[in-house]
Amino acid sequence: MPSDTDKIFSNFKEHSVAEFFKKNKQMLGFSGKTRSLTIIVHEYVTNSIDAAEEGGILPEITVKVDEVDKLAERYRVSVQDNGPGIPKKHIGKALGQMLAGTKFHRYAQQRGQQGIGATGCTMYAQGTTGKPVKFISEYDSKKLTGEITVDIKTNSPNITNLVEEENPEKKHGLYVEGEFGEVKYDRSLGSVFEYIKRTALSNPHVSLTLIEPNGEKVSYPRSVETVPQKPKETEPHPLGLAVSDLVDMAHREGPSTTVAVFLRERLQRVSDAKVQELAALLNGGAAANMPVVDFKKPSRELTWPEAEGLIRAFSMVKWIAPESNCLRPIGAEQIQKAQAAILAPDFAAVTERPPKIYKGGIPFLVEAAIAWGGNAGHVDSNNQRGGDLMRYANAAPLLFDISGCAITKAVKDVEWKRYGIADFEQAPVTVFVNLVSVHVPYTSAGKQAISDEDEVYQEIKYAIMEVARKVQLHIGGMRREHDQIERRKAILRYVQQLSRDLTELANKGKSDELAARLTRLIETKYMTQIMEGKNEAGEEEKETSKGGKGKKEVDEEDEGEE
Q1: 370-389, pLDDT tens digit by residue?
Q2: Exposure pattern of 425-442 as b/e (b: 16+ CB <10 Å)?
């Protein structure tokens, strides 16, 4: 007869990661009808861009959204790209298995990280409509057509109706099509429409086309004709590791790899001299309560206390900063071209901050831009333009979880009045911020907000302040020009009366001729002042872009004093 304890645990069962995410789909971003549709498009488009770049191909992506049943809020989404395609042996895991992919295990800058996205879309399709996701993968000389679902209990792919054909023309690319329920299409700030626009802004080398449910086609041709260099894969820095990271990495090595070899080959900035320094620190009694570590034993035998000792020792020695050549920013020139093509601003300023590290050893950098006037800013229901914030991580738009993001906090904490913008919410301005890192500190698996790490937050704020200063110079120049024009108009109003009075008092000359001469004099004087003002603003703007301790550093010091 089962005991009371056995009865308590009679319902104790194991669950797969797919089951977990099925019950907690909001953790993947599937919460809200408009948001869910945007997340689906985001996952497919992100994968398409990454795949094309990996293959050295200029991405061409077409997204089509069709309304299947308005009352049931059901839409069909299809995405076609020109990437390298997915081979037969990988297609199932790529589209139908959680935590399977080419990204999570690599220490390299990428748009996606967890290996969840496309499979999450497959699960969402079958969970809301009961239908599989269709795919066509063309690669090498083969063409695969089929349908896929996820076995929720085993977290494994189910492929049906698979047809393998020859591909004599050697076309390449992936087509996916899914039917999704509990979704909605509109043109709000969190919509597919806005997502495509923002993706085009941060990826000027991508040609993007959106076909909306009403048949309207929205195209964003590429403005850059070169494929970005592939991000360099690198090794983690000792100061960026936790104890569990070190143990897991050490235990993956072969039996012939010693602790010393593992540290030199699997971590950056670790030389023979650094290994000797660590050994002296741990085994020479230089520090109290430090475990003895045998650097000659196999790394797979490294214990948790030994790893704890190594992590403590890492923090006690001096290190060269992590490599930053693993970071691939969009680039100031590319951002300017994209903004000119899409926002057509009256003025734009861009900056790229120098690489920094957070959590002791994870490299990152921040790019920021501000567009003023033209089509910058968002349009409200009254057709008035107001301030707009565009957040990005590794060039992928972040449309949701706005309030919980470090970028949003940084923008709110900037004193915009100091930069000539009295009310950010009512100004025709777009702030663009892109965080670049091999490991973006997202707040959740939904990957829509950046964690408020101190170093990251400060760099974002400094970048915004740097470009805001350039906008301040532009706005100040505009105001000075406006004031001078108004003064010129005021003086010109008195020219006719003044010329008549002067000719009468002098009892000679013609008032019309005098009026013409006075007008030319005034026009020349004020045009000269306007041009000199523009030149001074231009020179001042150049100064803010120079190296050394310029206004950027001064602002940072001021910020620290506040």
Answers
A1: 999 999 998 877 778 899 99
A2: eebbbbbbbbbbbbbbbb
